[in-house]
Amino acid sequence: MKNNMEDIDNLIKETLTQEEAKFYDELDEQNILQMLWGVFKGKNSWIALIMNIVNIIIFGLFIYCIIQTMDVENTNDLILWVGACIFCFITMSMIKIYIWMQIHRNALTREIKRLEIQISSLSGRLSE
Predict the structure, then answer these.
(1) With the CA atoms of 9, 12, 17 and 18 taken in that order, what torsion angle do they form, in degrees rounded to the nearest 10?
(2) What are the backbone dihedrals phi and psi of residue 29, each rounded to the nearest 5 degrees, phi first?
(3) Residue 39 in contact with residue 48, Cβ under 8 Å?
(4) Using CA atoms, how far apart are residues 103 and 107, in angstroms rounded to an integer?
(5) What is the pLDDT of residues 56-106, one digit of tens each?
(6) If DSSP states are collapsed to H, E and C, what string results for 63-102?
(7) Cα of 89 vs its chain's centroid, Å
(8) Is the pLDDT of residue 120 over 60?
(9) What is the C-alpha separation between 14 and 52, in angstroms, rounded?
(10) SS3 label, residue 42
């Protein structure tokens, strides 16, 4: 299967111009760190940066709530601090889910661009 994919990639690169082939190589699969850094590139990078800063602040608040939970003696206060811990945990989870959705969106966009290049390559071959 891997040889078939490499053969297909080579056929596509042969039909593309040098600039298009370079762009096609950039669309290759990425590892997890490249995908994560890809979130911080583009038009919405500022949102990802702000969300990560907020996530760090919420994590600090989460640690503070855990410490306060251990020191409390009243049951009502214990319920409030545990509720704050749960709120912090849910907020951090939602931010992480948003970042993972952005990673998925970037990967999907990359695959769609690869398909577009393959279609244009095939249409170029058919017109010859």
Answers:
(1) 10
(2) -60, 145
(3) yes
(4) 6
(5) 999 999 999 999 999 999 999 999 999 999 999 999 999 999 999 998 998
(6) HHHHHHHHHCCCHHHHHHHHHHHHHHHHHHHHHHHHHHHH
(7) 20
(8) yes
(9) 42
(10) coil
Whole-number Å distance between alpha carbons of 59 and 88: 7
Q: Across the chain, how many H-helices and E-strands are there?
A: 5, 0
Q: How far apart are CA 61 and CA 47, in angstroms?
A: 21
Predicted confidence (pLDDT) per residue in 7-60, tens digit:
666 666 666 666 666 666 666 677 778 777 888 888 888 999 999 999 999 999
| Single-letter amino acid code for the residue at 96 | K
Structure tokens at 121: 């390559």
Query: What is each CA distance from 65 to 46, 54, 73, 77, 85, in whole angstroms?
Result: 28, 16, 14, 11, 6
- The secondary element (H helix, E strand) that includes residue 26 is helix 18-26
